[in-house]
Specification:
single chain, 11 helices
Length: 329
């Protein structure tokens, strides 16, 4: 089998725009695009930003009201985040115990007394343990000859080689500094393919191999299940962090956009038309338009990543939709 490694192997513009790029930078690029587009359309006389334009009435009638709805959006986002962290003592205790039990299982497989709290370091621990188990499985298969059938040996050799490459891929998480970067390492469906292949080997060749090989296969399967669990848990953390940052930044940008929209309406007046020279008006209006659209650009940049992450991490291994098998956003 040859399950492809995913994640950081596709550093394309689309990948950066949807996933790996700073959401603030992505929003800034969108705002810059709005500014340049507004200037270009005005220069081509497709829109009018001059003294007699309809910009001021439009700002007064709809834009201000639309910006104020950002308060509602922010409150909704906060409610979504808080709904995930609130709970009764018994519920929180059950959650904590479940997390600790999961960590203890990984520590048992790794032969460690404790495991790191950092997401990237924890995934590296799982990857290192998987690499060690694969090496031990290779050694035991070589010692036993892989059973009575030479085809069994060849199947195990191919399986071990592919799994070792996957473990090496997961070790890239050591280079990451954020939960999102760590999550991108375990994007895609390779983990599910290896779970299926491990279970197939257990069923088909369990009676043909030694008990030590069966024990190593059991350990590998547990580690692959851990990758599936980590994948979903880190997705939850990453999305919660993104929504929390979005909520906070929307408040700042929303206030700035409301102020700019309000003051921009005061630039236009009946007599003597505007408070700034006519030749400077397109630049002033374009800058104001870009700032007014900045909260929407920020919202778009974050929701693009949240939506893409959700799309590509829907499954937990039992079934893998086609979107996750593509290997890219």
């Amino acid at each position: 089998m040859n399950a492809p490694a995913e994640g950081k192997r596709h550093p394309t513009i689309v990948h950066w725009y949807l996933l790996s790029g700073s959401r603030t930078v992505v929003a800034a690029v969108i705002v810059l695009g709005v500014f340049l587009l507004t200037l270009a359309l005005n220069k081509a006389t497709l829109i009018d930003l001059g003294p007699n334009s309809r910009l001021a009435p439009m700002l007064r009638s709809g834009v201000l009201a639309g910006l104020l709805t950002l308060v509602t959006v922010t409150l909704s986002i906060n409610q979504l985040i808080l709904s995930r962290v609130f709970g009764s003592p018994s519920e929180l205790t059950d959650t904590l115990e479940g997390n600790l039990a999961f960590r203890r299982n990984v520590e048992r497989l790794a032969g460690r007394a404790s495991s790191p709290n950092d997401p990237g370091a924890f995934l590296v621990l799982v990857a290192d343990t998987l690499q060690d188990r694969v090496t031990e499985l290779r050694r035991r298969v070589e010692e036993s000859g892989g059973g009575r059938d030479g085809d069994v040996r060849r199947e195990f050799d191919s399986y071990v080689d592919d799994l070792a490459s996957y473990a090496e891929h997961l070790q890239q998480a050591e280079e990451n500094r954020s939960t999102v970067d760590t999550l991108l390492v375990i994007f895609g469906s390779s983990y599910a393919a290896y779970i299926t292949e491990t279970m197939r080997l257990q069923r088909e060749y369990g009676d043909l191999v030694s008990e030590s090989i069966r024990d190593e296969l059991d350990a590998v399967l547990e580690l692959l299940k851990a990758v599936a669990t980590i994948r979903q848990f880190f997705k939850t953390i990453a999305i919660q962090q993104d929504l929390a940052r979005l909520s906070r930044r929307l408040i700042y940008l929303g206030l700035l956009a409301v102020l700019v929209a309000y003051y921009l309406t005061l630039v236009y007046r009946q007599v003597p038309s505007t408070t700034v020279p006519a030749q400077s008006l397109p630049l002033v209006a374009s800058v104001g338009t870009a700032i007014i659209f900045s909260p929407l650009a920020l919202l778009l940049s974050y929701l693009l990543r949240v939506g893409t992450v959700t799309l590509h991490t829907v499954s937990v291994g039992a079934f893998v939709p086609p979107e996750e098998r593509i290997g890219g956003p």
